Amino acid sequence: MRHVLAVALLVASTIAAPAATFVRDGNRIVLTGVIRAGDAAAFAHLVASLPDNVIVVLGSDGGSVPDALAIGRLVRERKFRTLVPSQCLSACVMVWSAGSPRELGDGARIGIHCARLESDLAHCYGPATDQMAAHLRDMGMPAVVITMQAQATSPETATMVPPAVLTP
């Protein structure tokens, strides 16, 4: 019985989680799901032949910080608009913050928590959290949001950013 349980645990731990889903609808790209390693390359390939008047619609609970930062840099470079109709958490905020302009739907929620390593989900990983705060600064986010990111201490519970600080 122990061998069956050990094999089951090994199989369960090696199944890759699905990557984010990108759907193109005219000049809109809808990004949903968890951002994973390789998603930045997939996004870059998708938008390579698109004009600059693209709207990136986001609905994600976060994921890979390096990939989210890379997607965010491409969004900023191409001057894409970003829109969150419902919820964007953690690494997703790195993409949303890069929008030019960035927009929120009625009742949309933006949440921040510290970065963590896949090998240690219970603890914050300072260097990546610092990268996230630096990215928010580079994207011109309000100081209160940058401070919230830099001082985030929970790897699991997102602090919801008050909408009043996100809209002019």
For the record, give the distance between the C-alpha atoms at the N and C termini, rounded to a whole number: 61 Å
Biggest beta-sheet profile: 5 strands, mixed
Which stretches are low in confidence, meaning pLDDT under 50 for 5 or more residues running?
1-16
Beta-strand residue fraction: 15-25%
Overall mean confidence score, pLDDT: 87
Instruction: State the CATH superfamily name.
Output: 2-enoyl-CoA Hydratase, Chain A, domain 1
Oligomer: single chain
The CATH architecture category equals Alpha-Beta Complex
Q: Could you characterize the architecture of this molecule?
A:
This protein is α/β, with parallel strands linked by helices and 168 residues long. The protein has helices at 2-14, 39-47, 65-78, 91-96, 126-138, 143-150, 163-166, and strands spanning 21-25, 28-32, 55-59, 81-84, 87-89, 102-104, 109-112, 159-160. A 5-stranded mixed sheet has the order 1-2-3-4-6. Strands 5-7-8 form a 3-stranded mixed sheet. The longest helix has 14 residues, at 65-78. It is globular. The protein starts with a helix and ends with a helix.
Summarize the helices and strands and which ones pair or pack:
Layout: H1 2-14, E1 21-25, E2 28-32, H2 39-47, E3 55-59, H3 65-78, E4 81-84, E5 87-89, H4 91-96, E6 102-104, E7 109-112, H5 126-138, H6 143-150, E8 159-160, H7 163-166
Parallel strand pairs: 2-3, 3-4, 4-6, 5-7
Antiparallel strand pairs: 1-2, 7-8
Helix pairs in contact: 2-3, 5-6
